[in-house]
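Closing statement on the S-adenosylmethionine sub-project.
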Amino acid sequence: MTQAHAEGAPGAHSGLSAAARGWLFFRRWLANPLEMGSIVPSSPVLGRKIAEVVRAGPPGPILELGAGTGAITRALLDGGISPWRLTVIEIVPEMAEVLSRSFPGVTVICGDAWNLSDILDPALHGTIGSVVCGIPLVLLPREKQASLIEAIETVAPGQGFLHYTYCITSPLPIRVHGLQGRRVAWTPLNIPPASVWHYRRAGA
Ligand SMILES: C[S@@+](CC[C@H](N)C(=O)[O-])C[C@H]1O[C@@H](n2cnc3c(N)ncnc32)[C@H](O)[C@@H]1O
């Protein structure tokens, strides 16, 4: 696990061009389609919808899991969220490097989201307002889904998490995992069209 906390002017978004980000994304999809879950980064429209939901949510630090080349990170920042609130986690070192270069002020952690409790700054545990998960969960075994849900609950108790997906119905089996889930946004303007779900522990 490596961590970078880039300092600089908020909203600078320097780094790779959109074409280079698209190419990196596609190359990673070729290398590991299940881990990437998509051949192209999320669209700006999907990013804006997620940013709206996050902005309307609780204050406090924001955790993004599976940040890729930063499509959602960028939308959160463009939506007015301060980079200092954002910690993003990405397992592919080349992508984490791009994120660090692109988003001054954002804390970028290169690591496995399933190890959240270990890789996240302990000072953030229990303080997180929103979690946005872009890691494709639908095709994972239920035990693996459950362990990520547990990892999120451990660092952000009671907050639940947002998850964007290309599924028409819930990508997570809600009852199996003891969750409450509802679709909070949808857009056809993404490849493919995407929904945003919010999940939280039932009764939380
Ligand atoms: C569907 S892509 C989303 C990328 C970006 N957020 C976007 O919307 O364009 C999923 C991302 O999750 C990352 N990922 C997959 N498994 C991961 C894990 N265990 N820990 C952290 N990131 C992971 C992939 O490398 C990929 O960048």
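The chain is about 35% helix and 20% strand. With this model delivered, the sub-project is considered complete and its resources will be redirected to Aim 3.
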